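in:
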């Protein structure tokens, strides 16, 4: 059962494929489960603000006012429209997105907590720690210790002799009594 105001992408694709004159490209492959379960809100402005949030969340201070200006809406109107369609405030949505991305980095990278906080758009690591703990009832460091599986691999950025970014190196965590890391692959 779907929430009021949601249109299931799968239904839209199905209808489009049944339209007269539709031709399936030879390169077509079935969409993943994640894609077919995606929802679009009936108000296209909500879809647009969600896209903007996903594009801009790492940039630090992203405000309701900035998003509203990009959509030519008042902050009040955007706040009420977003809440009506999604059941969440814009800022709550942004915060949860940042924490979800941080959660992924905590278990898949060797970046410090401070680097992860900055990567997902927090200007102050104390704010990041507070928001993370509010959602998970533990600090980011404790989350990492509990969830960093021995079989995980993670990527570490590399720099060349001049300090410029030179791709990433993929490492595997060793679970044989030590925490030695061995390089597996290098990506440019």
């Amino acid at each position: 059962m779907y929430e009021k105001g949601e249109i299931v992408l799968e239904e839209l694709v199905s209808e489009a494929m049944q339209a007269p004159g539709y031709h399936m490209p030879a390169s077509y492959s079935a969409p993943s489960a994640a894609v077919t379960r995606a929802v679009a809100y009936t108000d296209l402005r909500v879809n647009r603000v969600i896209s903007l949030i996903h594009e801009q969340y790492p940039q630090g201070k992203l405000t309701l006012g900035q998003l509203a200006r990009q959509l030519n809406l008042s902050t009040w109107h955007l706040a009420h429209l977003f809440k009506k369609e999604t059941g969440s405030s814009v800022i709550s949505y942004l915060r949860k997105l940042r924490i979800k991305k941080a959660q992924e980095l905590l278990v898949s990278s060797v970046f410090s907590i401070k680097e992860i906080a900055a990567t997902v758009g927090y200007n102050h690591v104390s704010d990041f720690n507070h928001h993370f703990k509010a959602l998970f009832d533990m600090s980011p460091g404790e989350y990492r210790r509990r969830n960093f599986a021995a079989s995980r691999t993670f990527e570490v950025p590399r720099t060349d002799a001049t300090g410029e970014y030179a791709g990433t190196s993929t490492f595997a965590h060793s679970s044989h009594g030590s925490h030695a890391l061995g390089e597996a692959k290098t990506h440019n």
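note: The radius of gyration is 21 Å.
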